[in-house]
Write a structure and sequence with these properties.
alpha/beta; 29% strand; five-stranded mixed β-sheet; 146 residues; 5 strands; Nucleotidyltransferase, domain 5; globular
Amino acid sequence: MKEQIIIYTDGGSRGNPGPSALGVAMGAPINKGYSKYLGKKTNNEAEYEAVIFALGKLKALLGTKKCKDLKVIFKMDSDLAVQQISGRWKIEGKTIIPLFIKIHNLRINFGELEFEHVRREQNKEADALVNQELDKHSHEGGLFNL
């Protein structure tokens, strides 16, 4: 049986498009959370960016050889992103297609990738990371206040 890791990802923007960020909560053996401010993006773009970030970070932390033997299970609260990335729904939008291609190209570094839709309540850690990152940047340029 392949070793597996569960990764919760979330992307969000305040406004659509608007200031956005990603959140990634990696389970064992990493057990760490990451966030990154993305600038002005849509919610869907931020969801894709979270997966791209997670795959890149995982490869950097574990190395190519270990990643090849790994099953990565993504848990995301965006059903749209899950269905599109899994190839079940058509991707529309000129900004999403290049992000999908990045994920597709990163897939070759991993044994198996699975994308699962979860309810927002099951994705609290990644969601909190997104909001913390957005809160940190909320003062920049007076673009938005909470």
